[in-house]
Specification:
The chain is α/β, with parallel strands linked by helices. The protein folds into 3 domains: about 150 residues, Rossmann fold (3-Layer(aba) Sandwich); about 80 residues; about 80 residues, no CATH class. Strands 2-1-3-4-5 form a 5-stranded parallel sheet, sandwiched between helices. The longest helix has 24 residues. This is DUF4062 domain-containing protein.
């Protein structure tokens, strides 16, 4: 295609989540490798922006002013993370992370720049917690939950799995918007798409069969799902055959395509994933319904309402704290917000 694009991801956090910040770097490197392998015709690269790597010492002003001046606010994705510390106050906010979030959110509201604002709260236990820090974090989290959907995680070592999935989704929106491939797709292009999806789909089935359930298997399956999401634009024309497949890995490919590019024709099919399909696939179907609720509520409210009612009936038998039930609740909230004037 001959087009080139650099997508910048800015990470903001207090100093207690250095492990998560390092995982963000590894995820960006991994996604760049996947993009280079699966779409070599496109020169698309992610760049992780952090004060550790993109600033230099300067004693002429307040540290936050130095960071603001050197990093600027011209980036594509903001990723905020908090755990046990709220951070050091600035002249405008209770911490540097809050300060950077408010700048990013104001930019998004004014000009949709950054294009996406993500924020995560870690729920892992804290040794010797500070009550003041904890109250500040809880108040900030409540404020953000009134604004939109925040991310939560309780396994610090597995943060990469959560942020990888979300970065792939926003990457697809930045590169393609909500557009599907226009016009007829050639038979040769369809064959290329089939070849590209076959490997990851088979890897999903293989990992499921050969790896015992647990965090390691989930991490490996999330890598497969992330790979499939990067293929969404090319595999979208294959949806009629993907959804009819008897292979779980191929059905996951359909779900991942619908996470990136919602399609009203497959809303009920996504809801039916909660009726006996593998839990991993059902969870990602819930995330696809969440994406659809955010993007299609205004134009297809009745179709979405029906799909959500079906999904809610099917997850009613699960624990309300399960990831599948949580995903469906989030989709319902997004749907109701999308219908509000």
């Amino acid at each position: 295609m001959g087009d080139s694009r650099r997508i910048t991801v800015f990470v903001s956090s207090p100093g207690d989540v250095a492990e998560e910040r390092a995982q963000c770097g590894r995820v960006v490197e991994e996604l760049n490798t996947i993009l280079g392998a699966l779409a070599p015709e496109r020169d698309v690269r992610l760049e992780l922006v952090r004060w550790e790597t993109h600033t230099h010492p300067d004693l002429g002003d307040h540290p936050q002013r130095v960071v603001d001046e050197q990093l600027g606010a011209d980036f594509d994705v903001f990723v905020g993370i908090m755990w046990s510390r709220f951070g050091t106050p600035t002249w405008l906010a209770g911490s540097g992370t809050e300060h950077e979030f408010r700048d990013a959110h104001a930019g998004w509201r004014a000009r949709r720049r950054p294009a996406h604002v993500l924020f995560y709260f870690c729920e892992a236990p804290v040794d010797d917690p500070d009550d003041g820090e904890r109250e500040a974090i809880l108040a900030f989290r409540r404020e953000l939950e009134r604004i939109g959907l925040v991310g939560v995680y309780d396994d610090r070592a597995a943060f990469a799995d959560k942020v990888r999935r979300d970065l792939v989704l926003v990457l697809g929106r930045i590169l393609h918007g909500h557009r599907r491939p226009a016009g007829a797709v050639s038979g040769a292009d369809l064959e290329i798409a089939r070849a590209r999806v076959t490997g990851p789909a088979a890897e999903y089935d293989r990992v499921r069969e050969t790896t015992a359930p647990g965090p390691d298997r989930t991490r490996r399956l999330e890598v497969v799902a992330s790979t499939l999401r990067t293929l969404a634009r090319s595999t979208s024309p294959l949806l009629p055959e993907l959804v009819a497949s008897g292979s779980a890995g191929t059905r996951l490919a359909a779900v991942c395509a619908l996470q990136a590019l919602p399609d009203v024709r497959y809303l009920d099919w996504l809801a039916r994933r909660f009726d006996g399909d593998q839990p991993f696939i059902a969870y990602h179907a819930g995330m696809a319904l969440l994406t659809a609720a955010r993007e299609l509520s205004a134009v297809h409210p009745h179709r979405l309402a029906g799909a959500l009612e079906l999904a809610e009936a099917l997850v009613a038998r699960l624990s309300p704290t399960s990831d599948r039930a949580t995903a469906v609740r989030a989709a319902r909230v997004a749907f109701e917000e999308g219908r509000s004037p």
